[in-house]
Amino acid sequence: MKRLLSLCVTAALGAAHGMTGAATMDLDAVTFQTVVNGGVGGALAVRHAGDGSNRLFVVRQGGTINVISAAGTLLPTAFLNIGSGGTAPPLGFTTGGERGLLGLAFHPQYATNGRFYINYTDGSGNTVVAEYTVSGGNPDQADASSGRVILRVYQPNSNHNGGDIHFGPDGYLYIGMGDGGSGNDPCNAGQALVPGDMSGCTPGGSFTGTPPSGVPQGNASSRALLGKMLRIDVDSTNTPVGADLCGADTNLRTYGIPAGNPFAGDAGSNASACDEIYHYGLRNPWRFSFDRVNHDLIIGDVGQNAWEEMDLVPGSAAGLNFGWKVCEGFHVRGSTSNLCTLAGRTDPILEYDHDVGVSITGGYRYRGPYTSISGALFYADAYYDKLFAATESGGTWTLAKTWSSNPAIATLTGFGEGEDGHLYFTAMGDGKIYRIVAPVAPGNAVFEDGFEGP
Ligand SMILES: [Ca+2]
Ligand SMILES: [Ca+2]
């Protein structure tokens, strides 16, 4: 059946080539095909290596990354395990609640350099981005002892760790940082660009313990990186003159600042503002993505008590302020009626209130082979067990369809694309991976061999 499926899709794709956009949208025909039928509990992201292997890599909160072969088989041995029964990462590991292994990004030149990056909670509860390499002899096995800390950010509370990481189309690593937790951003992290602007909170984090020799301790100013989207260069340690490196270890340079970071260097209002910051005013950008066609950055920002929001950065725009904690969605924080008036903010493209859901899982714009849904933006609410699709017309986004009451979308915590553009999602609760399936062209039959549709 699977072989027949791929033949049908391939044949029909040729005929449908070029048909895109809302006019041809056929969301009612979407179904969810089971790709992995259990065994990957705690999954929160799906990634591909960009190496032509067509494998999928499943990121699991408990500390493992599992490989799904191109033939669709879940391999029995994990690619990497930094959790229970595995090899602890350089600064230790904590999981549970909003902590754990939270992100994975393969280097754009992974096929030749074998380098990939993970975001995890260390043994003291702080955020760590570390570099690993694949093993020399087995492409389905990472070198568990290769971990090297790139960035460590002090976390004052257990929640709002963000955790997603992606390489942008510019080749730089983007890191989504939550506001450090508690509630209502007590240190004003979202709006603080300078470590000293933390509204009376001690800007410096007191990292506990002493790391082994050669492992970065972290920087006391790293707390100012909370509530931001960071952009760093993992291929260089170059920094601008007068750089304000809020996350870099004093004696151990592990990354560079890309030219064009909006607060790089000391000129004008950039003085003392952290050079790693690319966008700010975020509360908890749990999951984000890059549109593989137009390179827009799409961020799902989890709200406080009133609004969940979807933010969009067009093309290569830099330095956007998404408003938190002054704004929540389009509104004044906590208000269901008063619109936000913060000067210079960038409003979201979408919001929904807490009757609809309470924790957004940021999604992807569909760019896969099923052209009847090309350009639809899929996102979810992990607590209310809903999947949404929005469509865009003339720059305005509109919710077009909501799926609910379906076991496939219970605790939907992450999405991911395959190398071929297929869109997948993970349900933390049932340990399964699903593929979003739709007619190749509107009116065509749906070719799928798995889950019964909604
Ligand atoms: Ca600066
Ligand atoms: Ca916002």
Blueprint of the fold:
Blueprint: H1 2-16, E1 31-36, E2 43-47, E3 56-60, E4 64-68, E5 80-81, E6 101-106, H2 110-113, E7 115-121, E8 127-133, E9 148-153, E10 165-167, E11 173-176, E12 228-232, E13 277-280, E14 287-290, E15 297-301, E16 307-313, E17 327-328, E18 331-332, E19 350-353, E20 360-365, E21 377-381, E22 386-393, E23 396-403, E24 412-417, E25 423-427, E26 432-437
Antiparallel strand pairs: 1-26, 2-3, 3-4, 4-5, 6-7, 7-8, 8-9, 10-11, 11-12, 12-13, 14-15, 15-16, 16-19, 17-18, 20-21, 21-22, 22-23, 24-25, 25-26
Bound molecules: calcium ion (2 copies).
Q: How much strand content do the residues show?
A: 25-35%
CATH superfamily: TolB, C-terminal domain
What separation lies between the terminal Cα atoms?
A: 21 Å
The total count of strands amounts to 26
Q: Please name the CATH architecture.
A: 6 Propeller
Note poorly predicted spans. 1-23, 448-454
Describe this protein's structure:
- The chain is mainly beta.
- The chain has a single domain, classed as Neuraminidase, CATH 2.120.10.30.
- About 5% of the residues lie in helices and about 30% in strands.
- The chain has helices spanning about 1-15, 110-115; strands at about 30-35, 45, 55-60, 65-70, 80, 100-105, 115-120, 125-135, 150-155, 165, 175, 230, 275-280, 285-290, 295-300, 305-315, 325-330, 330, 350-355, 360-365, 375-380, 385-395, 395-405, 410-415, 425, 430-435.
- The protein has a four-stranded antiparallel sheet, with no helix packed on it. Strands 2-3-4-5 form a four-stranded antiparallel sheet, with no helix packed on it.
- The protein is globular.
- The model is unreliable at about 1-25 and about 450-454 (pLDDT under 50).
- One calcium ion (CA) binds near residues 244, 265, 266 and 273.
- One calcium ion (CA) binds near residues 265 and 270.
